[in-house]
Every structure is written in structure tokens, then in C-alpha cells.
Amino acid sequence: MAKIIYPTIDLFLYDLKYSLGDTQKEIEQNQQNFLNKLPDYIDSSLFIENQHTLESEYVHLLKNTSLQMKPHNKQYEGYFYPVLLGDSYGLLIDCALNNKVDAQPTQCFAGIKAEIEPILKGQTANIGQTWMLSGWLPLTQTKSHEEIAQACYESFMPDFDWEEDLEGNGHFLGASIFELTHNNHHVIVIIYPDENTLLNISGKFYSDWMRLFYYRHKILWAYNQSRLVKNYLQNYFSTIKAGNDSLEQARNKDNELNKLNQILVNVQNTLNDYTKELTLLDFQGGTIDINLSNYEKRLGRIEQKANRIYPNSATDLAFFKEFIRLAQDKYRLQITKDTENLERGLKLLSDTINAVRSRVEVEKTERDRYFQNFVTLLAGGWAFGSFVAGLPGLGEKNDNPVRSTLIKFSNLKLSIPAKPNEQEPWWLMPATKGIYTLSGFIVAIVLLLIWRRFWRRYRSPVK
């Protein structure tokens, strides 16, 4: 049977403190979600005042850095170690079997996990989490380090497959270290060579592991966020495309200017949302770049630190670099290609919408011009009609020249000469001034239309 001494589980949890555009209420809710992962006996008085508001890469949140666990089962011991990592929270929950002498069967990892899970109250970390399993081997153990690690993993994750989930392995402080992933589960198994390495040396690296795993999960989180943003962009693109089709259909009908304007407004609003989401997509790419650089630097520092503290040990963490290649060749490249393609889509949509908007503006201007001309004609005709009606003696039968001219103009319509003593047209018979105003108005409109027709011919360029 595979056995191990002082089996320990370290759970690294990462939660978002705030993201771009979060309100103060949302930030406070994020903080509360993080605090809910801590037991009730850790109250706010134990936290460093105002530290949770500082913009810093790494801040201890507890006054004593860590706080001892009060396990339900006395055979376990452990502690809590919360920190602030820039725009995120980090929490380390350490729990171990309180026995540093006797070798324990690897199945005990299931019991340690069962001690940790109630503390979380069913909550999960929204950025990510890493489980680290560790211990050292008794001198009488004949199984290889990989066999022991596999037994630990299968006890901890009974439904998972070691061969399928194993990402890589190497050496750390003379220990054998293995990395496994299964969907969103990230597990590290470290089999230390002796008690001193685990208890007195490995603890110096917890802050480094806290950062390294955070950068890893932040990269994966940013990539997952980019997939959500891409889905929003595709939906917006479909909406804008449908709006553009509606514009073309409405444009081919008469008297649809108001409808065209409304469709344009809706399309433009969606286009603005599309542009914002495209900016967020590029932002996620930048998040991956920053955290990828930090991940690579922290990994190099861990190796250097291990070789400096324990120069006689073999430290080889090259397998962790596979994640660097994965992030570069898949996650970052995918976002770059998506951004380029969606930017082309944005340009195509913008050009199409702008072309339709220009045509609508031309039609609107033309209609406005016709309306203004119509109002001008009405105003001119009414002014002339009022002028005619106000002439002195217009309503009397005398030799008023204006009256005679209007009578002649009326007769011209029928090409009949005026006869002596013939009854005058009804619109020149003595009556109210409103009749003369209307008559003058009609005459003025006709004259203005004739004048505008000849003026356009005169002003048009000779071809």
C-alpha cells in the first residue's frame, strides 16, 4: 500500500476584486463574496485597515499574515492566508493531518479535502483555484515517487484519470513535482524527500506559488472572458446586419424617411455597443500579455531561488513552460485573430451604414428644400394677394389700372376678348377683401412658378 508522511493540501483560491466598469456596489459585493470563503471566527477586526483599497501587487490582508484554522476534526491542523493581488484576492487554505511521525495511506487525502470543503460553503473562486498535495516518504517506502503521486491524485480525485490529466513533471528542492489538469481543476502533487525540506524550506515559496498560480488562472480567466465578448460581438454583428437589410428595404419604399431614421438610430446604438465590446476583447488580450510576462518571470525566480536556497538539490520546472507556449500559441493568438476579423467586420458595417446614412441625409435635405420652397411660395403669394386686396378703389367699378389688368388676365385664360358691359369675373366682383387676397395669391403663385422655371434654365450649366 502506498503511504506518505504528513499529507497536506494547500488550496490556492483567486477571486476578482473588481473589473473594468464595476460600480462601487459591485466591488463591495465582490469583497463580500471573498470574505464568505473564510470561517465566521475570522472577523473584520483581524484585517489590516484600508489595505483592501490599496492598489498594490501583493498585500497581506491579515494583521498576523495568517490565521490558524479551527478544524472540526482535531486530527487536522491548518491556517488561512489571504492576500490582495492588484485587482484580485488570493486565499491560501492549508490543511494537514496532524501527525508528522507515522506514515499514512494515500487515501487520507480524501479526508483532508472533506475537511476543507465545508469551509467554502459550496462557493467557488471566480478566477480559478489550484490544489497542491504534498508530503514526504517514509524510509521503508519502495514505490516510486510517481506511483505515490498517482495514488495521492486518485484518492483526491477518484473520478479522474492520472494518465490523461498529467501535464508534466519535474524536480523541485530535490522533490518530485507533477502537474495535472482536468477541465477547470488544476492540481500539483509534490513528493518531498524528507521532513526538513517540507517543513522548513518549502514554506519559503508559498508567496511565489501564490503569484505563479494567480498569473496562470488570470490568463485562463481572461481567455474565457474573451470568448464571452466574442459571442456578444457575433450577436451584435447579426443585429447590425439585420438592421442594414431593413434599411435597404425601407429605402426602396416611398414616404419611409421617418422609419429609415429610426432604423439608423437603432443600428448606430448597436454599432456603438459593438465598438465597446471590441475594445474589451483587445483589453483581455492585454491582460493575457501582462500575466504571461509575470508568469514567466515568476517561474524563473522560483528556479533561481530554489537553486540558491538548496544548491545541492535538482530543480527542474521546465514543464511549467508548456503553459507559456500554450498561452502564446492558442489563447493570445486566438484573441489576436478574432480582433482582426471583428475589426474588419466593424469597418465593413460602418462603411455600409455610413453610405446609407448619407443617402438618407440627401433625401431628407431634398424634402426639406421642397418644403421650404413651398412655404416661400405661400408666403410670397399671400403677401401679393394682401397687397392687391389693399389697393384703394379695387372693389369699385372704375378705371383702376390694377383692376383692369386683373380682368384682362382673367380673360386670357379663355383667350376671349373682354366685351363692353360684360359681367366681370366673380373673383373681381365687389366683395370682401378676402376674395381679392385669394385671387392675388393664386396669380402670384402662378407667376412665381413660371419665374422659377425660367430661372433654373438660365442658371443651369451649358452642356
Measure the end-to-end span: 104 Å
Helix proportion range: 55-70%
SS-based class? alpha+beta
H and E order: EHEEEEEHEHHEEEHHHHHH
Question: Overall 3D geometry?
Answer: elongated
Main beta-sheet annotation: 10 strands, mixed
Flag low-confidence runs.
none
Using only CA atoms, what is the Rg? Answer: 42 Å
Provide the residue-averaged pLDDT.
Answer: 82
Number of domains: 3
The percent range for strand residues is 15-25%
Give me the count of strands: 10
Helical segment count: 10
Keywords: Coiled coil, Membrane, Transmembrane, Transmembrane helix
Please outline what is shown here:
With 463 residues, this protein is α+β, with helices and mostly antiparallel strands.
Describe this structure in words.
By secondary structure, this protein is an alpha+beta fold. It has ten helices and ten strands. Strands 1, 2, 3, 4, 5, 6, 7, 8, 9 and 10 form a ten-stranded mixed sheet that branches. Strand 8 and strand 9 form a beta hairpin. The longest helix has 69 residues.
List keywords for this structure.
coiled coil; alpha+beta; transmembrane; about 475 residues; single chain
